[in-house]
Amino acid sequence: MKKFILTVLIISLWLAESFAGGWTLPKGKLWIKSAVFYQATDRRFCTEQDALSLAFRQAGCASAGHRAPFDPFIGGESTALAVFTEAAYGVTGWLDVGVQIPFYSLRFTNLANPSRPRRSNFGDVRFFAKYRVLQAPVVASLKAAAKSPTGKFEVDAEAINVSEGQWDFDFIGEVSKSFWPRPGYASLGVGYRFRTDNADFEHTLADELILLAEAGYEILPRLMIKGEVDWLRGQRPRLKLNGAPLFERRELLTFSPILIYQSNAGLNVEASVRFSLRGRDFPAGPQFMAALSRHFSLL
Question: Could you tell me the domains of the chain?
């Protein structure tokens, strides 16, 4: 399903957010972050459907989850550059609201179309709210997010889409613990993504489970290291005609070591590499990220 593959190329950049853990911003604080992601790869995690094909098996897809070329005959190479600009505002000290605006510059070429032009445009805007429900002995929060289909979406097997073309709704519960007086913390989040129907597809867009885990420690004054594990596991999509399940469930497990430096001016400089550990129907390969963030007081 080439159309499905080319649409999903951008989704491995699915989270650029956020400031650490379940904590919320103080009242009147504005937090702004701009993050740049880059990925270039000629491999993807194959699906169960791929593993049924002799050509895919010969190309390295012995079973679902193996890394293999995008296509066993014409190959393929994905190059993705994305900029996520995000802002969050502390409304009360226990309630944040925010928005995330992505911009993508994407290219996918193969032997059949080696000169396919790069597609650059704004993607789907995401709105979110975070509500802190507990302060001690751990910090606990509930987060809701909505992804609106504001990006350009085309029903074309050769199109490189910067949008999935439908609304998604995320609900995440997160628990965090500070190790003060030691300068470290840990956080765990579990969520669910409801994916609404896209009438242009012959199959449903299956809901997804989200798992987030992170820990950080200040190793030197103004210098912090973090580790993040992100896991996205989708259910099986189904044909709308008869409800039959498809063998193209998507999944992605990543690990990101992160280095953060806080300047004297209060500007946070961040660098990271996101490693793809396992997956299905996602591009396989590292993603490189650099970001700047800062807090502002509006009161």
Answer: 2-297 (2.40.160.40)
